[in-house]
Amino acid sequence: MELTELLYGPTGKIVSSICILVILGLMFMINVQLYMNRRKKAYFSLAVSFLLVIAQYVIILLLEMSSLPAAITAYVIQLLKVLAFIWINLGIFQLYNPTGRKLKLIAAALNALAFVVAALHLYLPGELSETDPILRFLAGPMLLEQYLIALILLAALFIRPNIGQTKTYLFSLGIFLLSHAIHMMDAYVLEESRKLLQVLEHLLPVLYYTTLFFIVFNRIVELLQAVFESSIIDGLTGVYNRNYIMTYAHRLVKRRRASVIFCDIDNFKRLNDTEGHQEGDRVLKAVARILRDTVGDAGKVGRYGGEEMVAVLDNAAGDVKKIAEKIRKRVEEETKVTVSVGYSRYREGVTAHELMKQADEAMYVSKKTGKNKVTAYTTRTPKMLASLQQ
């Protein structure tokens, strides 16, 4: 078999259909799994759309490899194509926007209209449509084809501005429109099919569904990344939460290179009581920003709880004292508050929890001996802390 035979004619249609079914099968399984885990309506809509397209191309394969009634089967394929397009674009819209009642009504109306158009063709009496040109148009196969073109234009006008990846989405619509236009020319205009048009008619759908795969896949990755980040990021300050920062500390302790800087905002309760919680939140954000900027690539910053911030550094000694003092100084200069700071370096046999506790104890010494200062944890710190608590 020559290569050109794979691009046009019955063989070309079979090859392109198989390629599309592979792409759609992967997308269908991904979206079903995501819907089962997340219950997001976009995944359900996309799964329905891919199932419709899979049905469409299974029928195409059966049509090419058997003797099914061509006319009626071709119209069923076209109806599935229209319904799939509605559900695909509904799913893409839902990936970026909430599903409201208005959207549900619009989607239901578009699906119902597709069935009405199909019913006119299938059930309108032939003798009536032959005598009346309007009824002949309504009963003809072209009405469903033109309805799909209208849907493509509506998608470009109303869906494209409300989603991300607008250029890629517009490119996919252009490919789909070109593919459909070639199909209409081949089916209704040209008396004899041209090889170039056949090649394009077979290849363009593969390109369309490949582009669609990347649109959907990229958005799903964005959504999963956002879910992951929300599980490890403190919503107010934008730094890591306590669970993640402890996990990070455990990882560095195993590598024997962790240091912890523990900061507590001085007189924070008084600030909240006198100036309000909004001002307190603003100060928390500012202190978190200073820690994040000062630590940079040397480690990670997290909110340990309330007004307590920690920095876990990826080194055993190094510039821990310098970084801690710089944090204290910047907070004093750039905000209306000060911080009491304590730090601890990794020692043999120390766990992440113990390292965090040591830095906390050193911070408490700073707090009890004048505030707005930096204290290093040493072997004498527990005795000093005990004397301060008496």
TrEMBL record:
Single GO term (MF): diguanylate cyclase activity
GO biological process: cell adhesion involved in single-species biofilm formation; negative regulation of bacterial-type flagellum-dependent cell motility
Alphabetized UniProt keyword annotations: Membrane, Transmembrane, Transmembrane helix
InterPro entries named in the record: Diguanylate_Cyclase, GGDEF_dom, Nucleotide_cyclase, Rev_trsase/Diguanyl_cyclase
Residues passing through the membrane, by range: 12-30, 42-63, 75-93, 105-124, 136-158, 170-190, 202-221
Superkingdom, taxonomy of origin: Bacteria
An annotated GO cellular component: plasma membrane
Domain GGDEF per the UniProt entry, residue ranges: 256-379
Keyword Cell membrane (UniProt): no
Name of the protein in its database record: GGDEF domain-containing protein
